[in-house]
Amino acid sequence: MITIFGGLNSRAPRNIWTLEELGIPYENKKIDFAAGENKSPAFLKINPSGKVPAMTDSDGNVVMSESFGINLYLAQRYGVGKLYPADAAGQAACVQWTLWVATEVENWAIGMIVERKFKPEPARDAKLAQAFEDRLAPSLKYLDTCLAGNSFLVGDTFTVADLNVACVLGGLNMLKFDWSPYPNLSKWLTACLARDANKKVAAMPRP
Ligand SMILES: N[C@@H](CCC(=O)N[C@@H](CS)C(=O)NCC(=O)O)C(=O)O
Question: What is the second-level CATH architecture of the domain 2-81?
Answer without folding.
Answer: 3-Layer(aba) Sandwich (3.40)
